[in-house]
Please model this.
Amino acid sequence: MAIEGGAGEVTPFLSLFAAFSYGIASMAMVFINKAILMHYSYSMTLLTLQQLATTLLIYFGRVMGFQKGKGFNWATAKKLLPVSIFYNANVGFALASLKGVNIPMYIAIKRLTPLAVLIAGVLRGKGKPPTQVSLAVICTAAGVLIAALGDFSFDLFGYSMAFVSVFFQTMYLILVEKSGAEDGLSSIELMFYNGLLSLPFLLFVIIATGEFPNSLSVLSDKAVSAGFIVILILSLVMGIVLNFTMFLCTIVNSALTTTIVGVLKGVGSTTLGFVLLGGVKVHALNVSGLVINTLGGVWYSFAKYQQKKKISRKSEPRV
Model:
């Protein structure tokens, strides 16, 4: 499996660093995106700017000799096209959902990704998951349902967008894990292909949906605000950081590890989401559901860790 400089052994430190950095970047990105969408509602234009910034940064980094990588290959690009489509669909629907869904509920719904990954695994012939894992996933899903019943700010469109985002996130995580492992691509190379392949698709979407050119004129008007510019730059920078850490974590570890990290970082995000960026109207049912959902996520992570340890012991050669 390839790491950043090329082929090499994946050390425990690199695995831990990849998982931890993805968790921090993912948690920060939720709040940054929510903050900018409160002032600038053109989510697909925002995603286009994030992908453009990522692609240009990597390209000029190569031109100036800061980063080495393989040259552009059409066969690889064709193979990674589904990854790019699923990635952008996931982020696009996630951004759309954040317009109407509060952060704790958004995170609760996104915790259903492990359920989708497990179902996809069963469909791909990986077999039935252990009982502990299945029960944890059921607990997580039940928590979402209970929390939704007590959500004062329930938004059907926002909820729908979040559920669709879960589906696309599952698909791209599985494809990234497969592509990185099979083709020996580093996370930066995956980012470059993803950004480059995304731009034509995203340009078509913002024109077809009518965001362009109005989104650019609104962006120009808001550019006079220093506060808005700071949030926008943070969004672009964190978009690059999140992409890098997500691809790195998935390649170095696995798609499942990435989803587990996403679940665990959600504990902190959920707590902060009750008080930051407008907060949330508290209802006993909503809080109870979120607690059940969080406990289910932690239980799931523990169950997967135990399962991995058991598999590792069985694979160790007996002396």
Remarks:
- The beta strands are 2-3, 6-7.
- The first helix runs from residue 12 to 37.
